[in-house]
Design a protein that fits this description.
CATH topology of the largest domain: Rossmann fold
Shape: globular
Strand order of the largest sheet: 3-2-1-4-5-6-11
Distance between the termini: 64 Å
Number of domains: 2
Radius of gyration: 24 Å
Number of strands: 20
CATH architecture of the largest domain: 3-Layer(aba) Sandwich
Strand content: 15-25%
Length: 508
């Protein structure tokens, strides 16, 4: 087996990070770059990678990769020495995440052997392999076993709940605590767990690169506290300075019922909530602590980790969120008039308004749309539509925004996804709500004259069959009020005035 030379110069090691747009990968990448490593980031959308704050770093190379396409893995891995495997298939739309996870891991290991990598680093989950272990935790354990059986040396870390701003498990807890002063909870609230701060996770993932002793080893990683989920929620309420929460556990709450409840109260959809809820019934406590001697660091307590995460949320300094992961459609396939659209029905509502204003001021309004800022008109109707979507299993409006002022490609924006951002020129969104078709919303800014801004707002809808067409015409009467009102709201700044009122220029 190959080994890592402890004295290799960092600049001579090329590191591949898979899952680079995910919650863990998106935080790991800038830290590796800060330490001087040459990094290759792999994801299905290169443009999504390049839109990140670190996307133009001189030591970074962004490449496309799909873990279900062996050729793309081979191409992404070529010339690399080390690879982080941070991929999982527990995303909306993936019906059999266990099967998908197995196939992806096998494809990755085959490519690693073909490219003769020196080291694979993987983050897995805690949980002892018993008959009651959840499907999610079984799948993570089996992926770890596939990597262990690979001929490439590996380092595998097993963690329970990771406490950090923007993580799915932390947001579930935070929203439950904030919104429910009285909770009738499943028995899993009394399950012991050993959470770990995202900062401690980052240290382990990075420092193992220079520790040959971690090769071909599996380590349990956790914080200094073993607590129940009920205790975590109580700590969260205390740190948010909320009244004491009354939590009562009952045996009738199944994981499936729990997932529906989580979906209705929090921004996390049931496709993610159900496997997470199933895993909460399992004890997730470290069985050994060897890593503490190999990579010593100050372990952050649960209370301090929660305090830091809440503070970052409060000040809108969230590096990555659980909503970041996911595939973006190629932009060239979703423009009316392109070959992929020909022969199909495309419905459109395009409105134009001209305002005397600075482009930067209007762009600030566009870039700040949604989340706590609202949609500038008819917020009640937007909330009602989000509630209806949540009730039928959609994402609803509760995902909000990662940042209240800035958007980047791939961001979740209420029930939209940002497909493209061109600062002070264009914002392009795709709806992720439950619809009998595909919906897009685009804002474009032009400057016809000095001191004037033309705002072009286009809603495009590609219906699926007759239900899709009926849906469009059912909501058509509301378009005039909502779209005109939103345009006027976008144009409303301290130093602006309307030159030409909103005008409908294209309608189908």
């Amino acid at each position: 087996m190959a080994n890592i030379n402890q004295h290799d110069n960092k600049n001579n090691k090329k590191i591949l990070v898979t899952g680079a747009t995910g919650y863990i990968g998106g935080r790991l990448l800038p830290r590796l770059l800060d330490k001087g490593y040459q990094v290759r980031a792999a994801a299905r959308s290169v443009k999504k990678l390049q839109s990140r704050p670190w996307g133009k770093h001189p030591n970074l190379e962004c490449v496309p990769m799909d873990v279900f396409n062996p050729e793309s893995i081979q191409n992404a891995m070529q010339g690399c020495d080390i690879a982080y495997y941070l991929v999982h298939s527990m995303v909306p739309g993936q019906k059999d995440f266990k099967k998908a996870d197995h196939q992806a891991a096998e494809n990755f290991c085959a490519a690693a052997e073909a490219n003769q990598l020196k080291h694979i680093i993987h983050l897995s989950g805690l949980g002892e392999n018993t008959e009651t272990l959840s499907k999610h935790l079984i799948s993570r354990a089996e992926v770890a076993q596939i990597i262990r059986q690979c001929t490439i040396p590996s380092t595998i870390f097993r963690a329970a709940m990771i406490i950090g701003s923007g993580s799915a498990s932390f947001e579930i807890m935070r929203y439950l605590v904030e919104r429910l002063p009285v909770m009738i909870a499943p028995r899993w609230v009394n399950t012991p767990t050993q959470p770990i701060s995202i900062r401690n996770v980052m240290t382990y993932l990075i420092d193992c690169l220079e520790k040959p002793e971690t090769l071909n080893q599996t380590f349990d990683i956790g914080g200094p506290d073993v607590v129940t989920y009920q205790k975590l929620m109580e700590i969260c309420a205390e740190e948010e300075e909320l009244p004491k929460r009354l939590i009562m556990s009952v045996p009738v709450f199944t994981p499936k019922l729990s997932s529906y409840w989580i979906h209705l109260v929090t921004p996390v959809g049931k496709s993610i909530a159900q496997p997470l809820a199933e895993g909460l019934r399992n004890k997730t406590v470290c069985q050994e602590d060897r890593i503490r001697r190999l990579i010593p660091q100050e372990l952050i307590s649960c209370r301090e980790a929660i305090r830091r995460a809440l503070d970052l949320q409060k000040h809108h300094v969230v590096e990555t969120r659980w909503t970041d992961a996911g595939e973006l459609p190629p932009l060239e396939t979703i423009y009316p008039g392109d070959p992929e659209w020909s022969g199909g029905t495309v419905l459109m509502d395009r409105r134009v308004l001209i305002v005397a204003a600075q482009v930067s001021d209007i762009w600030a309004r566009i870039a700040g749309i949604g989340g706590d800022n609202g949609w500038y008109y008819g917020n009640f109707l937007w909330k009602l539509r989000g509630l209806m979507d949540a009730w039928i299993g959609g994402v609803g409006l509760r995902r909000g925004r990662r940042d209240p002022y800035q958007l980047q490609i791939g961001d979740a924006l209420d029930f939209w996804r940002v497909l493209d951002v061109d600062i002070e020129h264009r914002l392009f969104l795709k709806a992720e709500m439950k619809l009998p078709g595909e919906a897009y919303l685009e804002f474009v800014l032009k400057t016809p004259k000095e001191g004037q801004v033309e705002i072009i707002q286009t809603a495009t809808y590609v219906p699926k069959g007759l239900p899709g067409i009926l849906y469009w015409y059912a909501v058509l009467p509301f378009h005039h009020f909502i779209f005109n009102g939103m345009l006027l709201g976008l144009a409303k700044t301290e130093n602006s005035h309307i030159i030409k009122q909103p005008k409908l220029v294209a309608k189908t």
